[in-house]
Amino acid sequence: MTHDPRYPIGKYTPEPFSEQKKEDWIADIRHLPQLLENALLNLDEQQLHTAYREGGWTIQQLVHHVADSHINAYCRFRLGITETNPVIKPYDEKLWAELPDVQHVPVNISITLLHALHARWYYLLEQFRIKDWDRTVFHPEQKKTITLWELLGSYAWHGKHHTAHIIRLREEKHW
Q: End-to-end distance of the chain based on CA atoms, in angstroms?
């Protein structure tokens, strides 16, 4: 079986609700900023500007992308818990990854942002009741209604997915 460098931990697969999975995924949200920060330890500027795979984003772009994505995720959860099936705003992540701030702002700025954002997000998720996980948002590009439970799983996966890109590149390059 050939390894697909785009999916170092495999593709996200939705799972049915369970208390254990809920605890695991919320813990993933809580701990992601530290895991991502650890994956970046001692990388220099040249390494940060190395693509994790041929045709892929640089490590710097990945880190800023996680921050951008998780800012949107946090807003989506807040909309989903306070409104009835709100339409969420899609964005072009590829264009966002090319913006000047992504190219020039140090990654530690996004790591700091993620620490604060995930502390708030974690607290919000910890307050959810079981019935809250069935609340929904509507994704207009996907033309799909998504439960907050499904969103939790996808964002828990998302952080680990991009952290694994960095770790795998470090292993391949012996950094």
A: 26
C-alpha span between 135 and 83 (Å, rounded): 9
What SS3 string covers 22-75?
Answer: HHHHHHHHHHHHHHHHHHHCCCCHHHHCCECCCCCCEHHHHHHHHHHHHHHHHH
Q: Is the dihedral of CA 25, 30, 31, 32 positive or negative?
A: positive
Predicted confidence (pLDDT) per residue in 92-148, tens digit: 999 999 999 999 999 999 999 999 999 999 999 999 999 999 999 999 999 999 999
Determine whether 129 is exposed, middle or buried from the number of CB atoms within 10 Å of its CB (0-12, 13-18, 19+).
Answer: exposed
> How far, in Å, CA of 161 to CA of 21, rounded?
17
Residues in the chain: 175
Q: Are 51 and 84 in contact (CB under 8 A)?
A: no
pLDDT tens string 8-23: 999 999 999 999 999 9
The letter for the amino acid at 66 is V
